[in-house]
Amino acid sequence: MSALAHIGHGVEKKLVTAIVPSGHGRLLLEIVENRPGVLSVTHHHARGTGSRRMRPGHTFWAEKDVLMVLVEAPQADEVFKLLFDAGGIGDPHQGIIFMEAIRRGHPMMPLA
Amino acid sequence: MSNAQNANELIVLTDVVLLTAIVQRGAADLVVQAAQESGAQGATIFHARGTGMRQKHLGILGLTVNSEKEIIYIVVPSEQADRMFERIFVTAKLDTPGMGILWMTNLEKMATYVPHEVAARFGVHTERKE
Predict the structure, then answer these.
(1) How many CB pairs under 8 A join A and B?
(2) Backbone phi, then psi, for A51, in 5-degree steps?
(3) Is A68 helix (H, G, I), strand (E, B) or coil?
(4) Is ipTM strictly over 0.85?
(5) Residue B75, beta-bridge partner list
(6) Is B90 exposed, middle or buried (0-12, 13-18, 19+ CB in 10 A)?
(7) Of A67, B18, B82, B107, which one is least surrounded by beta carbons within 10 A?
(8) How far from B44 is each of A84, B30, B33, B70, B86, CA to CA, in Å?
(9) CATH code: domain of residue B79
(10) How far apart are CA A67 and CA A75, in angstroms?
(11) pLDDT tens for residues A38-94?
(12) What stretch of H or E contains B20?
């Protein structure tokens, strides 16, 4: 087996994704990036719609940030809770957060 | 953003599925409208650029496939997932070559705002901190 076959295995990982109002992604990134177990964090822009409704046939769109955090499984619940609390996701129209298992994953390499 | 000290209670929902669709730019709104009609509470769309191997085999028709894509995330309860998957498949015409792809993955857990009365109805909690 080559050395490459081992890459991405070993430590069980989770992907936590938070969809939050535009501008919050960067702030949340700074909150979690140095937490124990966090391997990589990235965020990008999106537009989203939720339960807010306009006239029939019209959809309310809001600017969103999508934050993706690759985290080691033992710390995943803690990071999930931290993002939920810090992002105010429990408040109306503040977004959604979810977590999924990663079969194999490798983080971005840190700068030397 | 809220202060963690006065944060709302974390209510975790399981048995949820993430539907992800990659469609040609401009098609996402139609997909989201169809998903909402079949019960989706929300959707997130962002832009991407991509091409597929099959596009090479479309010949002159390949020129009609836009490499600008839209990616759609929709989180739905498991019991609605198959119905919504099929509805999106039909709406986005994914049986046509080059129109896009669609998949669904199980989520371990999900959390969002749950109205107090809904949470109380399920006996999750009785009091929300302000």
Answers:
(1) 100
(2) -80, -10
(3) strand
(4) yes
(5) B18
(6) exposed
(7) B82
(8) 18, 13, 12, 10, 19
(9) 3.30.70.120
(10) 17
(11) 999 999 999 998 766 666 667 788 999 999 999 999 999 999 999 999 999 999 989
(12) strand B16-24
A57, amino acid identity: G
What one-letter code names the amino acid at A34?
Answer: N
- Structural domain for A30, as ranges: 17-50+61-102
Tell me which chain B residues have a C-beta less than 8 angstroms from the C-beta of A79.
none
Question: Among A44, A89, A93, which would you mutate to test the B interface (most chain B Cβ atoms within 10 Å of its Cβ)?
Answer: A89
- The DSSP element (H or E) to which B73 belongs, if any, is strand B68-77
Chain B residue numbers with beta carbons less than 8 Å from the beta carbon of A84 are: 7, 10, 111
Q: Are A72 and A13 within 8 A, CB to CB?
A: yes
User: pTM to 2 decimals?
Assistant: 0.87
CATH number at residue A66: 3.30.70.120
Round to whole Å and give the CA distance between A28 and A25: 5
Q: B30 and chain A: CB distance < 8 Å anywhere? A: no
Number of domains in chain B: 1
User: What is the C-alpha separation between B48 and B22, in angstroms, rounded?
Assistant: 9
Q: Cα–Cα distance between A85 and B100 in angstroms, integer? A: 36
